[in-house]
Protein: S-locus glycoprotein domain containing protein
Organism: Parasponia andersonii
Amino acid sequence: MLKRLRLFISSKGVLKFMPKEKAKDYWETGWEEPRNGCDVYGVRGPFGICRISESPICECLDGFAPESYVEWSRGNWSEGCVRRTKLLCEKNFSNLDTNGGKNNGFRNIERMKLTDFYEYVEPAKSEDRCHRWCLNSCSCQASAYVNSIGCLVWSERLIDMECSSDEAALFLRLAHSELG
């Protein structure tokens, strides 16, 4: 059977491929991208995480709060989230407050789709060394040790974070007071 094909972008920005067999009087959806809201790059902004099984689909990571509560409540998550408590190395040491000078640590977030813009750290050849390397660099925001790859670290704001059943653990750097 001969098929007619349509490829178009919907009013919601979804790219659709639709075939129609000549004998049928309707168009089928062959595939479409993005398939869900989590597939849209940057929809959750920095330090936001997308969980397609929840409503709303976006939330801030533990230790973070929306950059703009007004926009967040409207479902516009693109501004993302900011730290509730600064990291020890970001503080003004003449005025140490709630952390009492205690070191930063990591929160383990299982089953994460590892985000773009990581750096590969060659000398950190174990998970422990990878975490130590991150803690010794004030710009390090998170780390992950992937057996087949090695140590990955993020020095920029984490964007495009999503829960995934087949990915790795991400160790998010937090102030000591946020670890409890």
User: Anything to note?
Assistant: The chain has two domains: 3-33, 37-178.
